[in-house]
Amino acid sequence: MTKPLRVDKDVLQIYSANVTQSFVHLSAEQVRALAHPLRHRILSALRSDGPSTSTGVAERLDSNSGKTSYHLRVLAGVGLVVEETERGDARDRWWRAAHDLSVIEPTDFDGDPDAVAAARFLTAQAAVFYASQIEGWLNSESEWSAEWRHAADMSDWALTLRPAQLASLNAEVAAVIERHVHEFDDSDDPDATTCTVIFNSFPNPHPVL
Fold first, then answer.
1. How do strand 92-97 and strand 81-89 relate by DSSP bridges?
2. Domain span at residue 126?
3. Starting from the edge strand earliest in sequence, which strands make up the sheet with 52-53, in order?
4. Contact indicator for 21, 101 with CB cutoff of 8 Å
5. pTM (whole model) above 0.85
6. What is the C-alpha radius of gyration for the chain, rounded to an integer number of angstroms?
7. Nearest alpha-carbon partner for 31 in 128, 130, 113
8. Residue 122, in any domain of the structure
């Protein structure tokens, strides 16, 4: 996928070469459902931690089972979570995320102000998460070896491009990342660890200096 905006916490997490991950291209209905902060957190929890009951989700998120039960049903109604009917019972229902990752194409919602606002909320949540990941690295950088500190990178560039050229650049970067996903599997290497790669590109004619 050449132009996905992956917006959930899980959407940003590391791809595994051993796992085929499923995507959902979010509809306007799904975006509006996810614009509720607790629903957004519930879906992220199910994706990162696995299936759970409403009580289990509530404990993870410091909420209550009445709220999480309601919001799980809302998410199920738009196809973002599914019930695991082989587990639990009518009073102790288990739920799992229906997909591993979400993809938003902002232009899908042109002409739908509510969906546009919902999509903006989700992308803003993603930006906050990006910042928290970078801050976490900066706070712990001194604890890593010189080899890892040298390998890590934070860079930005200012390019003058047409829309098609920016789209092409995005596709090329995505292809490089996908190649590394499929060609390198060092999960059994004690010297290897999970790494986060964050990539953003957008028009910015008047950057803040």
1. antiparallel
2. 10-183
3. 52-53, 92-97, 81-89
4. yes
5. no
6. 19
7. 113
8. yes
Q: Which residues of the chain have pLDDT under 50?
A: 1-19
**Residue 58 lies inside a defined structural domain of this protein:** yes
Region of residue 176 (phi > 0: left; psi between -120 and 50: alpha; otherwise: beta): alpha
Q: What are phi and psi of 28, to 5 degrees?
A: -60, -40
d(CA 160, CA 150) in angstroms, rounded, equals 29
- pLDDT score for 20: 56
Please state the domain count of the chain.
Answer: 1
Closest-CA residue to 137 (of 189, 197, 61): 197
Structure tokens at 182: 């499929």
Cα–Cα distance, 82 to 93 (Å, whole number): 10
CB of 15 closer than 8 Å to CB of 9: no
DSSP summary character for residue 66: H
Query: Which helix (H) or strand (E) covers residue 67, if one does?
Result: helix 65-77
Is 158 domain-assigned?
yes
